[in-house]
C-alpha cells in the first residue's frame, strides 16, 4: 500500500484546547471536521498519549483554534512537540477565554464544543462535540497541512493521526544547497551553513538539535 495517498486527503492545522483543573492546556491536531450542520457537530481525533486527551475526557469540553497561514509556526511547535503534563503551553502564546474556553488569538477563529460522544481506536480517541460557540478573527486564510508541509516545511508530530515515517529526500546534483534537519520536529533548513545562533521556527530548538542531511 502506498501510504502517500493519505496526503491527498484534506487536513487543516488546529490547536485543540481545554482545561486542566483550571489551567489552560492543549495540543496540535490536523484531523478536525464538521459532521452535521443542525445541530452543528465537530469531530476531533486525539492520540491516547496526548495529555490533552485525558483533560477533554474530564472536562467534557474542547475548543478548536483554526490556525491561519499567517500564524506563527512556533505555535505548532509549542503545542505539538511538548507535553501539557510538563509545560504550561499557553504561557508562550497570546490567548483569550471565549465561551468559557481558552483559544489562540493568532488564528482564523475558534469553535467551542461540548463532548456528546466518542469512539476509541487502537491509538486515538475521536471526540464528537456539539458546537456551543464560535467566532471568526479577521479575514485570514486557514492553514492546510499541505501548506504547513510545503511552505512552513514542518512535519507532523508522531502522535498526529496523519503522521507517516518520513524518508529524507535525496538532494539533486543540480541543487548544491546543504540541508539541516531539526531532530525534534523535522523542520528542514536549507543554506550553505547553519548559523550557530539559529533557532528552529517551529519548535524553537537551537542549532545543536540540527543534523545535516547527507
As a percent range, the share of helical residues equals: 10-25%
Structural class label? mainly beta
Uncertain spans: 157-164, 167-174
Radius of gyration: 18 Å
In round numbers, the mean pLDDT is 85
For the record, what CATH class of the largest domain applies? Answer: Mainly Beta
CATH superfamily of the largest domain: Electron Transport, Fmn-binding Protein, Chain A
CATH architecture of the largest domain: Roll
Q: Spell the H/E element sequence.
A: EEEEHEHEEEEHEEE
Q: Would you report the number of β strands?
A: 12
* Largest sheet properties: 7 strands, antiparallel
**What global shape is seen?**
globular
For the largest beta sheet, what order do the strands appear in spatially? Answer: 2-1-5-8-9-4-3
Question: How far is it from the N-terminal to the C-terminal residue, by CA?
Answer: 28 Å
Subunit arrangement of the protein: single chain
Named CATH topology of the largest domain: Pnp Oxidase, Chain A
Kindly give the count of domains. 2
Main attributes?
single chain, mainly beta, three-stranded antiparallel sheet, Pnp Oxidase, Chain A, Rubrerythrin, domain 2, about 10% helix, about 210 residues, seven-stranded antiparallel sheet
Give an overview of the whole structure.
Helices cover 12% and strands 37% of the residues. With 214 residues, the protein is mostly beta strands. The chain folds into 2 domains: 10-152, Roll (Pnp Oxidase, Chain A), CATH 2.30.110.10; 178-212, Rubrerythrin, domain 2 (Single Sheet), CATH 2.20.28.10. The strands form 3 sheets. A 7-stranded antiparallel sheet has the order 2-1-5-8-9-4-3. It has a 3-stranded antiparallel sheet with strand order 11-10-12, with no helix packed on it. The protein has a two-stranded antiparallel ribbon with strand order 6-7. The longest helix is centred in the N-terminal third of the chain and has 9 residues, at 51-59. It is globular, with a radius of gyration of 18 Å. Mean pLDDT is 85; it is low at 157-164 and 167-174.
Amino acid at each position: 500500500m502506498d501510504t502517500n495517498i493519505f496526503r491527498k486527503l484534506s487536513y487543516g492545522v488546529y490547536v485543540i484546547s481545554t482545561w486542566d483543573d483550571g489551567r489552560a492546556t492543549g495540543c496540535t491536531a490536523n484531523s478536525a471536521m464538521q459532521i452535521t450542520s443542525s445541530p452543528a457537530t465537530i469531530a476531533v481525533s486525539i492520540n491516547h498519549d496526548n495529555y490533552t486527551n485525558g483533560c477533554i475526557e474530564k472536562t467534557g469540553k474542547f475548543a478548536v483554534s483554526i490556525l491561519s497561514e499567517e500564524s506563527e509556526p512556533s505555535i505548532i511547535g509549542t503545542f505539538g512537540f511538548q507535553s501539557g503534563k510538563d509545560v504550561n503551553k499557553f504561557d508562550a502564546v497570546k490567548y483569550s477565554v471565549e465561551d468559557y474556553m481558552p483559544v489562540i488569538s493568532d488564528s482564523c477563529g475558534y469553535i467551542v464544543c461540548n463532548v456528546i460522544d466518542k469512539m476509541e481506536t487502537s491509538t486515538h480517541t475521536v471526540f464528537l462535540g456539539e458546537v456551543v460557540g464560535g467566532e471568526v478573527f479577521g479575514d485570514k486564510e486557514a492553514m492546510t497541512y499541505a501548506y504547513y508541509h510545503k511552505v512552513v516545511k514542518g512535519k507532523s508530530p508522531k502522535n498526529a493521526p496523519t503522521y507517516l515515517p518520513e524518508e529524507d529526500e535525496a538532494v539533486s546534483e543540480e541543487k548544491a544547497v546543504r540541508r539541516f534537519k531539526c531532530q525534534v520536529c523535522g523542520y528542514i533548513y536549507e543554506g550553505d551553513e547553519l548559523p550557530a545562533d539559529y533557532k528552529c521556527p517551529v519548535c524553537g530548538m537551537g542549532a545543536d538539535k540540527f543534523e545535516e542531511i547527507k
